Amino acid sequence: MRRSLLAALCAIAAGCSRGASRPRGESPPPAEFLVASQDSTFWIATTDSSVRIRGEPITLAAYEGRFYELYSAEDDYSFPDALLVGERLYRRDITTGDSVPVFADTTVGRIAITYARDHPDERPLTPDEEVDPDPETSATSQIDVIGVFGPYVGYEYHVDVALAGSSPWHATRRGMLDLRSGASVGLADLFGKTVGQALADSGRRRYEFVRDSIVRDHKARGAIDQRGADALMRLHFDDRSFSLSSVDGKPAVSFDVPGRGEGSAGNVIELDPMSVEPTPWWPSVAERLAIQNANGDDEWTRRHYRVVARYDASGDVARLSIADSARREWPVVMLAAPIRDVTWLDDPPLDGALRAHLTRAFDAAASYGSSERETVLTREHPRTAAGRVPTRLMTVVRSLPSSRATPSVSRTNAPIQIRSRKPARNVRADDAGTRQQHGARVRRRHSLDDGQGRGHRGVSAQ
Q1: Is the dihedral of CA 408, 414, 417, 421 positive or negative?
Q2: N or C: which end of the chain has fewer CB within 10 A?
Q3: Is the distance from CB of 355 to CB of 337 less than 8 angstroms?
Q4: Neighbours of 222 (CB within 10 A)
Q5: What is the 3-state secondary structure (H, E, C) of the chain?
């Protein structure tokens, strides 16, 4: 389905290009770049007086002259009466093929170890066995990529837990990772100790002001009871729970107060972004991020050409064009919004070896839906099929068998030949209107689900 959508978008783009107003007899300026749009990447080249476009469901990070694929895989610890599925995020070097985990859920693993100890007569399920339709114990987690900034990746971690004999709860938090080490990144690591502390202090004051104002206002109108007010007051500001974005070309920090509890208490509270003066690592990132022009369009400027993205009224579709120095434009492609970033392949030019590795990565991504051991587009994951939630693009990922004699928090790196992989899901950190995760797997609904869309957990301070 995803391949069909990509093909359809390219076909529509080709039709629009033929019918659009464009310089007659003129060729677009030579250009080559990658456009990242949510969970797909488009390779666009306008060399040889033609426009070549290739889109595949792959998420890439580029830094220090290398490309890395980001993908997530499930850790399935399920028992006959316990749905226990965790998730971890991997970084794969497309040159060497080596995969390294950079983030792993530990909550579900700990619950699985406790469950195995408390139920010694139960054995873990094999990959082809199904969990009870209404298990007494359930714990699932999901890791979403919400932004890529060179070697730094913003993520959102969400876990749903329902244990026998206790109230269900869920939790959400955000943060930044350094892909080079897999370490968590704090404000001081990105902006220095002094600036980082000032940002944390300002974010804490903003949150306390917003929290107290909400409680007072809602109590006065009778829109919140004491239990809800107490739940809100129990949320703790964490200066390591934040996301990055770009505002007017500068880095911006948005604090996301972690949530934990029942219903809305388990959602993050997203504060408004705060601009920061650029640091030495930012310019190489900023050149990939859009600047909004006077018409409200996204624009990327190079020495000899510009890339322009115009969004439709709904904000769901972006029309990408290339413009030369005389401001003549050539329509290129329509793709799902928002556009995350653009990676330049022509300045400096892509060398032959790296081009070959990037081509192989795109070729591999093209086959993700065709193998029994990769992304499955036509049937449900045996663990999460029951009571599925409708999605716009149904992509369900089935985990590969692994050693399951004893539930374990850690697992060896998945080799590229056999790993179960799906592209990391991407959304713009400050775009609440597009937070429905395209290509997200089906997730089971049970008593812990408060019925709200997973895509709208962020709550603007305004």
Answers
A1: positive
A2: C
A3: no
A4: 7
A5: CHHHHHHHHHHHHHHHHHHCCCCCCCCCCCCEEEEEECCEEEEEECCCCCCEEEEECCEEEEECCEEEEEEEEEEECCECCEEEEEEEEEEEECCCCCEEEEEECCHHHHHHHHHHHHCCCCCCCCCCCCCCCCCCEEEEEEEEEEEEECCEEEEEEEEEEECCCCCCEEEEEEEEEECCCCEEECHHHHHCHHHHHHHHHHHHHHHHHHHHHHHHHHHHHCCCCHHHHHHHHHCCCCCCCEEEEEECCEEEEEEEECEEECHHHHCCEECCCEECCCCCCHHHHHCCCCEECCCCCEEEECCCEEEEEEECCCCCEEEEEEEECCCCEEEEEEEECCEEEEEECECCECCHHHHHHHHHHHHHHHCCCCCCCCEECCCCCCCCCCCCCCCCCCCEECCCCCCCCCCCCCCCCCCCCCCCCEECCCCCCCCHHHCCCCCCCCCCCCCCCCCCCHHHCCCECC
Confidence band, pLDDT 50/70/90 cuts, at residue 231: low
Convert the pLDDT of each residue in 274-333 to its tens digit.
999 999 999 999 999 999 888 889 999 998 999 999 999 888 899 999 999 888 999 999
Torsions phi, psi for 58 (to 5 deg): -140, 145
Whole-angstrom CA distances from 411 to 73, 85, 87, 173, 457 are 11, 14, 11, 23, 30
Rg (CA), the chain: 23
Distance CA 146, CA 244 (A): 9
pLDDT for 319-342, tens place per residue? 999 999 888 999 999 988 889 999
Tens of pLDDT, residues 180-229: 999 999 999 999 999 999 999 999 999 988 888 877 776 666 655 566 66
Joined tokens for residue 409 = 């928090």
Cis? peptide before 348, omega within 30° of 0: yes
Residue 72 CB: number of other CB atoms within 10 A? 24
How many Å apart are CA 461 and CA 149, to the nearest integer? Answer: 24
Distances (CA, A) of 41 to 49, 208, 229, 348: 22, 40, 43, 20
Q: Is the CB of residue 171 less than 8 Å from the CB of residue 258?
A: yes
Strands (E), 150-213: 152-162, 169-178, 183-185
